[in-house]
Amino acid sequence: MRKSTVLGLLCIGLMHCALAQERKLPIDTTVTTQHNVTINGTAINYTATVGTQPVWDEMGKPIASLHYTYYTRNNVKDRASRPLLISFNGGPGSGSVWMHLAYTGPRVLKIDDEGYPVQPYGVKQNPYSILDVTDIVYVNPANTGYSRTIPETGKEVDRDKFFGINADIKYLAEWLNTFVTRNNRWRSPKYIVGESYGGTRVMGLSLALQNQQWMYLNGVIMVSPADYKIIRTGGPVSDGIKLPYFTAAAWHHKALPPALQNKDLLEILPESEEYAVNTVVPALAKGGFISDAERETVAEKMAYYSGLSKKEILDLNLVVPTRYFWKNLLKDKGGYTIGRLDSRYLGIDKELSGTSPDYNAEITSWLHSFTPAINYYLQEELKFKTDIKYNMFGPVRPWNNEKDNTRDNLRQAMAQNPYLNVLVQSGYYDGATTYFNAKYTMWQVDPSGRMKDRFDFKGYRSGHMMYLRREDLQNANDDIRDFIKRTMANGKSAKY
165-182 and 197-212 helices cross at what angle (nearest 10)? Predict the structure, then answer.
């Protein structure tokens, strides 16, 4: 046991005595516990290590301490050949709780089969976890989870070191170097996974780890990735490629014309995708100079594929904001709003009329079940005792979005590293980072097309956190498991 572990346990054991004076966590500590889980019928014993590890400045002074949870399978004869998966969520400002307690980890929320909360809150074994094939570390960036920045005495935190696309990538790459070194994982095949904004993060980290830390990856996994070159820019492409998501959500709520509604979802999405790319995007590019006849024709077909009326689409000049869609799709079909991140969820607004829902129905449902579960799990099962608040969403804004080169960072990392492959996973009912946005991002990473055989896309009949639906929890974990097995080098040289 490391000295820091002993000191950390002592500090945590005595914390309640000290909290009357000051509430903070040790900067560098670990707590280790033993557990078991049955995955796909196989019993697996594993070690869980919950800890904090510093971020240092150029002078070697701690400027933040990041909280993490690290799972390793026991009785592994050759740890060097066993993969390590490094997991981030998004936000920016989100803790790692989401994929940790609902997707890849050995414990998942107690929820129903569609992902809705049930009481009593808590966790249960995850029979589909990928811990059978890879060790996993869940990392909370600065100010998320129990992670915190550390200001110098009498000074404010230098926000430029943490809260921006490139700052986030830089300090996390340094932190991961230390983590990999401390845990003797340099020889292991390495994978990074990021959800939502985490997609931007891992695209950037793929090159930062490679060129700044000399740490080469076997795989990058993007779960419902947010590509801000599309989401924040607007314009014909950004607006036009929303249509397939509208089709999916409307199909789920039985709001499409019978000719579409009577088909399976995966039969109609290719139609909507083709129409979006080949007709809607060019039509929107013409702006106010589109002919009246073409405007009428496009509006009618968009109504056919979206569940909205032709008049609504004409009134919006063919540009349908997603917020308008969430508010109005079911206005005359029960009067519910639909969720942003998962449009299967329904909400009730004060007024039927409007252009935007009062609240995000899915977030309230998720916080309902995740918040009590992560607090219970870390403190009672993993024995990490503290009065510090677990930040589901931490104070990280304003966030610097300038100089976002992450998409090209991923392309360059792949070009330099023949081992590096990419898996993209998306839910069809995600209205925030839509599945077709994710496909478009994947298409744009490598304009040459010479590396397209190293990309793989998987879609699921759920939303942003597709793994909340039990069927997709199994399928999505299996897809990651297969991706890891397929992209292991297995003695093959890294060369073209």
Answer: 60
Residue 9: band (very low, low, confident or very high) from pLDDT cuts 50, 70, 90: very low
First-to-final CA distance of the chain: 44
Question: DSSP for 171-205?
Answer: HHHHHHHHHHHHTT-TTS-EEEEEETHHHHHHHHH
Length of the chain: 496
Query: Could you read off the pLDDT of 453-473 as tens digits, one per residue?
Result: 999 999 999 999 999 999 999
Q: How many CA atoms does the CB half-sphere of 437 hold within 13 Å? A: 32
> Which CATH number applies to 3-230+367-487?
3.40.50.1820
Q: Please, is 381 exposed, middle or buried when counting C-beta atoms within 10 Å of its C-beta (0-12, 13-18, 19+)?
A: middle
Rounded Cα gap, residues 63 and 152, in angstroms: 8
Domain extents in the chain: 3-230+367-487, 233-359
Is the Cβ–Cβ distance between 183 and 206 less than 8 Å?
Answer: no
Phi first, then psi, for residue 453 (nearest 5°) are -75, -5
DSSP codes, 200-233: HHHHHHHHHHHHHS----SEEEEES---HHHHTT
Using CA atoms, how far apart are residues 211 and 194, in angstroms rounded to an integer?
20
C-alpha 342/C-alpha 427 separation (Å) is 8
149: left (phi over 0), alpha (psi -120 to 50) or beta: beta
Q: What angle do CA 410, 416, 422 make, to 5 degrees?
A: 40
pLDDT tens profile 442-451? 999 999 999 9
Other CB atoms within a 10 A radius of the CB of residue 20 amount to: 7
Residue 95 near residue 392, CB atoms below 8 Å: yes
Bridge partners for 37 per DSSP: 44
Interatomic CA distance for residues 334 and 354, integer angstroms: 15
Question: How far apart, in whole angstroms, are the C-alpha atoms of residue 429 and residue 447?
Answer: 28
Residues near 453 by beta carbon (within 8 Å), at least 6 away in sequence = none
Measuring CA to CA, which residue among 193, 203, 197 is closest to residue 87?
A: 193
Tokens representing residue 251 in the block = 């199909």
pLDDT tens digit sequence for 71-126 = 999 999 999 999 999 999 999 999 999 999 999 999 999 999 999 988 999 999 99
